[in-house]
Amino acid sequence: MGAKIAVVVSTYNSPELLRLVLDGYRQQTGPGFTIYIADDGSTKDTRALIESVRDDHPADLVHVWHEDAGFRKARMHNLTLRRVKEPYVLLTDGDCVPLPGLLDAHARLAGKGYFISGRRVLASRRWTESLRQQGSFKTDISSMTWLGHRLRGRINRILPIMTSIRLGPPHETLAGIRGCHLGCWLDDLRAVNGFDESFEGWGREDSDLVARLLHAGVKRRDLTAPPVLHLWHAEHARARLDENDAILQVCIEERRMRAKTGIDELEQKGA
User: Fold this and answer.
1) Nearest to 267 by CA among 255, 259, 86, 200
2) Is 0.90 topped by the overall pTM?
3) What is the per-residue pLDDT across 199-224, written as a single tens digit (0 to 9) for each?
4) Could you tell me which CATH class the domain 5-269 is placed in?
5) Distance CA 52, CA 75 (A)
6) Strands 181-185 and 114-117
7) N or C of the chain: less Cβ packing under 10 Å?
């Protein structure tokens, strides 16, 4: 691809996990990239963490923040996407450490007419706590070391780490989407008006985005490897999940392509 990548990392009051994620991106090779930290209202501890690593990090770190008014990932992503200048966007989370070759794989395999859905490997609670105490994690480790982590129950599976890198064929399946590892052209994200801010509270804002991309004719292709390492954390409250499920279902039935309240509406308000 040749152009720089925008890595959009969502976070909320988890500076110790964010430190591990930023350390993972410090170890990435390949194309130049900018990290946009989409901060859904964290306290000053997150800002302090970002400032502490900014000067010696190989990527430019752009901290985008809005006030805490509950789980508003869709709004936070739209605010952040307005700031993005790079043509290709990797959407991920502040609890997902990139494994070696992740950005290089997206840069090499990205193509017009499709987005890339990536995989994840779950880290156990105990191992996550150990990594939090260490404050860093060497991601470029041998296959035998990863096998040892699997045998000790530190990760839930090893196949995505051991398999070769390839893209599956284009398809239009919504099931299995992971918002923590999704690569897409900025033009395509803007064409569907970004995330739909009708989604508040945890759940389905990523599936809605993907459904609208598919409705707009942008196909899905699945990346076999490398995955992101998803660090353990307590589950978010799911009080609005039923409502969000209903909003998603309407979007699917209508085959709607654009967010009802998205980037365009933010720009009209001058937000």
Assistant:
1) 259
2) yes
3) 887 778 999 999 999 999 999 999 99
4) alpha beta
5) 27
6) antiparallel
7) C
